[in-house]
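User: Show me a protein chain along with its predicted structure.
Assistant: Here is one chain, sequence first, then structure tokens.
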Amino acid sequence: MPNNKSKGSKAERELVKLFTEQGWRAVRVAGSGVLDESPCDLIAAKAGRKGFAVEAKSSKKSTIYITKDQINDFILFSTNIGLKPVIATRFNREGWLFVSPKYLKDTGKFWAVSLATAKEKGKRFSQFFD
């Protein structure tokens, strides 16, 4: 049974492939998910477009929780290097939905995104990166 790290790496590779198939260039960021040394999972860009810092999260549950420190570092990093931050969420059998961090819900200790919020506020790849 794969561990969370290998599942996360697989999800990140899947996203790189998705970006590439749509004419974007995307790279996985070395060290993402390891000792919180990296502020995002992917960086994606396309000629003539603003680049994106992508934080990828997938879950079998109906809500994804992300630590406040992780999101704060992610947004600060994105802003500092001129990238737009986006959370790539994947819930079981729903495919990828791309959500702006402004739609995360403050639960006190964590930021959270529910499947319902991802479906309501998030967009599919072709809608988000048109």
